[in-house]
Amino acid sequence: MADESSSLPPVAAYENVKEFMSVLMMVSTTDGRQFCGTLMATDRDRNLILSEASEQLPVGFQSRRGDRFRYVGMIAIPGKHILRIDASKDSLKAREMLLKGVSRGAII
């Protein structure tokens, strides 16, 4: 779960979500679950695909093994079920530095 020091305010406009490709995101859904992973794709229906994602179940819920967290890998989250999207500040800074390096012709 992201804390106040490592997350940005929610990404309000879906048009701007494309700017967050390859950024670590926390996505909250209508059923109370949260998914943390790297944004890989979105579409006109506001669906999101996260890679290297993990799921956090709502308080009071547990998996069959008794865990509240589980690794899910790559997951598609339907846009109609998304309540909130938060982006990691550290991930945004790293992406910004990478893009500045590329724009200056640096070889990575």
UniProtKB/TrEMBL annotation:
Residue intervals of the Sm domain: 15-87
Pfam family membership, one: LSM
UniProt xrefs under SMART domains: Sm
Origin: domain of life: Eukaryota
Matching InterPro entries: LSM_dom_sf, Sm_dom_euk/arc, snRNP_SmB/NAA38-like
SUPFAM superfamilies (alphabetical): Sm-like ribonucleoproteins
Name recorded for this polypeptide: Sm domain-containing protein
